[in-house]
Specification:
heterodimer, A: 303 residues, alpha/beta, Rossmann fold, 2 domains, four-stranded parallel β-sheet, 11 helices, 48% helix, globular, B: 356 residues, 10 strands
Chain lengths: 303, 356
Amino acid sequence: MKIGIPNALFIREKIPLYTSFLNYNGIDTVVSSNTTMNTIEDGKEFATSEDCIASKIFMGHIVELVKLYNNGYLDAILVPRIYKGKKNMEGCVKSLALYDILSSIFPDTRFIDVNVDYSQNLSYFKSLINLGVTLGINLKNRFLGAFYALKKQKEFELRLYNEQFEKIDFKNKNILVIGNEYIVRDNYIKKLVTSNLEDKKTNLVYACINNKNNRYKNISDQLYFINASNILNGIEEYIDIVDACLFITGFPCVTDSLVNEMVKKRIKDKPYIEICIDENTSNTGIITRMESFKDIIEGRRYL
Amino acid sequence: MIIVSYPNIGEYERVVYNFLNRIIDKDKCKILRPVKNSKETLKLGEKVSPNNVCTPFKYTLGTMISSIKRGANVIIQIGGGCRFGYYAQIQEKIIKEDLSYDVLVINLYEGNKLNAINALKKLKILNKKLSVKKVLKELYITLRLLRLVDYITTYIRDNMCYIEDKSKIKVVEKEFLEDILKIDTLGKIKEKRIYYINKINSLIIKREEKLKIGIVGELYSLMDPFSSSYLENDLLEKGYKVKRYTTASYLLLDKNKSEKKLLNKAKGYLKYKIGADGTESVVHTLELIDEGYDGVIHVKPFGCTPEINAMPILKKISNDYSFPIMFYTFDTLNSDTGFQTRIEAFIDMLEMRNKK
């Protein structure tokens, strides 16, 4: 059996979790390839015009997997859903409907849903067990696979964090990149925005990769969005050691729009730039803005 | 002197006024009713709001700033669900830090949840002698009043197409809206219900077949006439039968009870809740099809993700039942003319379908 996993939206962060669980139980996985301009073009065709750029990218990845499914290379496509996290934190509203939307748009494709909802006692562990039931995996392997997958996911997150921390060098310019993981670390958006900043003297620090210390309440005590709280944890962790901040938001993400307002009030003394990306964003405009941003950071070092 | 105000949503601000009027200490506190949403209040809110934020944020912030400019020094904000629950904290920051107003913003919700004890503690600023018993009693009356408001306004909406002289029903509606501010006992609620139903019935001439249009979508656009360019009033005045399910009493009192039932009704289209009122939009459209309605208008403010989630599913329903659904998004740069043209074209199409 072969199952496709879209390499987009909040699913990106959890790919080791799902691939480890499925591979442990002898199921092959195919993760969709990195985002390109074609991915966005494919996504635009099926997504609602008002969807955010991340949803359009997601739809592009699904189109790639559906093509594989129609050609007989895949038996199903995995679509996770995160409704409620720990302490009643909420996932992105878009994630709630992905399974139903895809079932409406591609009625002939088999989608498998995995629901994470802590309010109904459905933790990541239990959601994997339920996935095992759907796939007909025996009880013992379901449990062993779930433990193995959670361990692999933890190792993956720790490795990313350590790699990032080792790279921080105070002789260089450190820029904090603020935004959802699926935006700031997406291949296409990286090329479009952050590649313009990268050189030997500049180091990018991603706020979404942090030690999950739950310090977001220092910035906003009433926040109840899972992704945003993770980003704020990162900001609290790195803000004192970076030279500047770069916000990257997908148009029109309302959550980012609200949370960025809070963050800007926290980082008063650092230079920051806000880049809003949609499917029509021009590379030239971004390069100009990035160059002037670099000049500002460089200039401040001599003040 | 405390001058308290609150954001606006349609005529429901009258119910909030009625509640506050019964719990405040009248010697030390005064209520300032918010102005109705208008282009001016929208401009006030839009100027200081984050760019991509959903439109209700701008509307509510606009009325809050307008109230502060007219003298309010305490603002009460209530909001829960989707991103509504997070509005208050950002709005407070904008009002205090960006606009430098010295006001107290009371947020009755905490992290998208209503904590009754903390909410009561916060309300004590309006009346130090306020007891739990008093608040519960007045809250019960207010909820019954809310039911009355929704019952009468729905009754008017359901029957307006059968009344020839629309100005007469407008007079009754105006009289009722004035009464909302004064009703303070359960007895009066019962009495007014019978009084207004009889009055509306006396105006009905003949129940004949009319073009039937349902309106579904995001709650703020549905319940606040200005934020949907007076769509509902416009259709009613043109003599069409209009149905809208979303009301404040439905959202506050009935919604949580009926969530499982909703998903059952949407079987084949929805397995999960799709956020805020998105699930309702799908289920209510299916109900309207069953009830023989001619078409549905789906309204939402720009960037409303739950309703964007509902759109592909509504499109599938539209294809499966060959049922006309029009999608309309409202934002701060609306043109009434463009909107009117689209509505007229949609209605023409429905009428032509009916003739066939």
